[in-house]
Amino acid sequence: MAIPRKPLLTSLLLLQVMISFSVLVSAELISSLNSHSAPIHSNDYCAMYDICGQRTDGKVLNCPYGSPSVKPDDLFSAKIQSLCPTITGSVCCTETQFDTLRSQVQQAVPFLVGCPACLRNFLNLFCELSCSPNQSLFINVTSVAEVGGNLTVDGIDYHITDMFGEGLYESCKEVKFGTMNTRAINFVGGGAQNFREWFAFIGQKAQPGFPGSPYAINFRSSSPELSAMAPMNLSTYSCGDTSLGCSCGDCPSSPACSSPEPLPPPHEEDSCSFRIGPLKVRCIELSMALLYILLVSSFFGWATFSRTRDITQPDGSSESLVRLLEGDGINSELKESTLGVKVKRHAHLSPVQRYMASFYKSYGSWIARNPSLVLFISVAIVLALSSGLFRFKVETRPEKLWVGPSSKAAEEKKFFDSHLSPFYRIEQLILATVPDPKTGKAPRIVTEENILLLFDIQEKVDQIRGNYSGSEVPLTDICLKPLGEDCATQSILQYFKMDLGNYDEYGGIEHAEYCFQHYTSSELCLSAFQAPVDPSAVLGGFSGSNYSEATAFVITYPVNNIVGDSSNENARAIAWEKSFIQLAKKELLSMVQSNNLTLSFSSESSIEEELKRESTADVITIAASYLVMFVYISVTLGDAPQFYTFFISSKVLLGLSGVVLVLLSVLGSIGFFSAVGVKSTLIIMEVIPFLVLAVGVDNMCILVRAVKRQPRDISLEDRISSALVEVGPSITLASLSEVLAFAVGAFVPMPACRIFSMFAALAILLDFFLQITAFVALIVFDCKRAADNRIDCFPCVKVSSSSQESVEGGSEPGFLERYMKEVHAPVLGLWVVKMVVVAVFLAFALASIALSPRLETGLEQKIVLPRDSYLQDYFDSLAEYLRVGPPLYFVVKDYNYSLESRHTNQLCSISQCNSNSLLNEISRASQTPETSYIAKPAASWLDDFLVWLSPEAFGCCRKFTNGSYCPPDDQPPCCTADDDICSLDGICRDCTTCFRHSDLVRDRPSTAQFREKLPWFLNALPSADCAKGGHGAYTNSVDLKGYETGVIQASEFRTYHTPLNTQGDYVNSLRAAREFSSRMSNLLKIEIFPYSVFYIFFEQYLNIWTVALTNLAIAIGAIFVVCLLITSSAWSSAIIVLVLVMILADLMGVMVVLGIQLNAVSVVNLIMSIGIAVEFCVHISHAFLMSNGNREQRARKALETMGASVFSGITLTKLVGVMVLCFARSEIFVVYYFQMYLALVIIGFLHGLVFLPVILSLAGPPQIYLDTEEEEQGRDGASSSLLN
Prior knowledge:
By secondary structure, the protein is an alpha+beta fold. The chain contains 46 helices and 25 strands.
């Protein structure tokens, strides 16, 4: 007997292949007269018997003649019983026909053998059709055809009850075919949704050369009236039957499969909420509203009481202090202009304050005497550090930038790559139709014109040659080839075997649309690499399974990925990828657009290449920022502009020198870390120079203004010394706070942000060092230049002495000083204004806290790329068109496959496996994809291996007489490529199944059997006779290293996530997979972890809130300690921390409003904002602390003294620099640096110059003055008193 030869993986075809069973039913040719007699329908009578011919494709045809059933001999009867236990006594088939039936049945067995009840019902359907002794009662020949001079069956009616059909379908509808992560009925039933559709699928007459029945079978549920016929109505087995029970994965409705413990719901960030009418209110929002009412009410009550008390009991010391401040003479001037020196005359300072005052006084005098030496030494130190730039390297690999090396996901990826196989490289094209401008609806893309265009594109892709070391690299050299020599390209063109010549031959568009519904069951729909192609993987923009209305083609080229790449295969792939991107940009884009389509594209190396390009994308922006900042500094540092003295009073040269010092500090930081082997990042190169400049300019302005405030009648040495004593402590406090804040950022796990924080902390520290050394020395030189009447940018040129007098007299208060003294401070002193300020700022702070839980986590990939990157469109297309999620692997470590171990039944999902096994639980989870994010049951190498071993799957695990592996009959050497029809009598005729039932223990292999046969399975090619071969589907699913010991170190079970469109989807899918794996690990006592290619980039978001709050708390705590050490005032330090917390809360609220996500970049920015925000607070707070008078007077004095410096030197400098970043080409700079920094500057300014003075005037720390008796004391006496 001969059977048609099928190509590899034909077993993935329809159940129609199995319908060739009906071909096997035969009838005995009795006589030509009998052919014309009326058919007989009675017990023990056949409707068909024997074979009367065969078709051109080799399929046999039955004789249409009835005859009595025939009693078989004992041996034949036993053979029939082994396959068809319901048939006893006489039969309606010959022994040869039965053998052929058995060989054909083997194609269906591998799909269904995991569920014995389904398999038994399915076999009964064809056993009754082929061999039942009462065949004529339910089979009626309706048409005949002449073949080779003989009449043969051309069509029959198969009368069968609905009860049997329903029972058959219900027992089989959930049976899985793990290799393809889908249901077996998609292959053996054409995806039928009920038994009628299944029967209609089975009964189709196959065209010559196609799988299926050689004649039509019309299934009928009732018999003709007045007929002796009766529908076939064998009892069916439920999939939950105790004797033939199926696994829970194949029969989830079974009572035994009820989950003992339901899966936990997905992580919910805030489940506490309720409704007030139509408004949904979160608990935290209501809590903040109630807290606000309570605090504001308490504050207003306290303020009213305090105000009444102040009116009835005025402060006795107030008047004397006012009189002192209103006095004339030198001491009055000193109080107005030399705050640092004045307060020290009457203050009792802490040891730290006395030490800092003493240090800055002596240091200021020394540097004024030796400016050249200080400038030379300080610059030399930083230049020495900068020498490390010779080892400068930039890290652009995404996994090295955004994933910590010690992260759990990184360790799991390393384990997966080393024990199994790294995920392949992805090269992708997405073609989409353009939406109609009127309706907004995109037309369907599945048209003949578009498919022919796709063939043209594919031809150009096939012609790509990458250039690697002078050799050409075609796609065929690097692509993934799971079976044979064809690339596993995922494209709609695979329905035409990637061959334009097949387009018309197969039927064009109609064939493609046919394959959308029958891709698993039609041989003509198989790909060139002999595997089904899921339309959801090659089409996009459709809903449900309406593939014909798809609006996008998705073409994916999987390319081999090599760990370590010792053979330079990855380098060859990268060379091809570069040519691929160039082709897409230069040729494919125009081709597609000319057909009114859009094209987006990407390669595996695209992100890294675009990040490299980004390094030069914003050079002009950064340069413009420096230029604007330089111009602003030059104007700000100078005196009030007067034309006739501008060339002397301006500070252009000093400003330029300050900018150079900032650059030196950045170079010193980068040089130091480069020297110790730390690679830089693009963020460091582009952000830190701006950041350090913004911070450095603040202190420059404060230092210059402090020197300018000193009286001109004292020596330059005293002016420098007094200025440093006045502002040195606050500059030190601010700088140390910033350094500490950035240092805390170094604990963020994301490498890019951690390295950024390290570089920034050292850069700010070096900048502070250069400010109090080199820049002070430059101030000394500038003062000497101005005193010597030399022109600013040309110090060698002197002017007449008449201008000198003008310069000396040009120290009048500027506009900002007058505004602070005459407008800002008096307005904030009004009682009503104070109440409004406190109420408004408190409202914003609590509202921001209420909004903060709405802050989304994640980092959109588009943001980190240049705005003009081609990947921007690609990521948009992914979100809009993709309908399949990323692959998800559940990795099992140290699986003990020995017979004594329980691991096998704890993992598998076929018959006799535990109901709560891993694969059964994955199957259950896939039924709730909205919470589990698991789209399908897992492809299980273990299930397929156990089925492949099973004696029922007699076409799979076979051996020659010498014990070596024997492949299925439709594979070489059993059937060679030269054979048109594979004979059953060839070299493999003596092959037997590997095991009998008696060889197994409870249908499980022994340890030795498992060890011996596993390599056979993994090398077995799938085909029509055995679809369960593991080669291709499971080649890399099992780590065979050391498996001989009885333990498999690593194996994986593959499924898919649901489509993930948002950052929240990615984070929640990772969280759900981790929670599921943890639960299963604890339940089964087996180490299991989930792996998907994107996990390493999203792991940080699982605990990003914990990381953020912890680091922010540490940074705030560190700043409190520094403030406490330097000011020795816990009260003042607490107020600074309170304002910082409010600034931080408001900034997070703004992030929610602006849609800025919480990620490592924004966490570092938040930490950094604490350090920057200190500058808005510490100078005002320090001035308040060092002033005398009551709280109102001291707050006003602090604003008059430091308000202008904070506004112009801190607020405006940062504002000017930040504004330039809005023109950056990289979205990450616009969102995370322009928007966040701009919000920080505005919020910090409002808190530092509005809220903080009000709070200090209401509840500031007490003054440290004990008396004012020494008002007339001289300057030397003041310094002596201070230091003592």
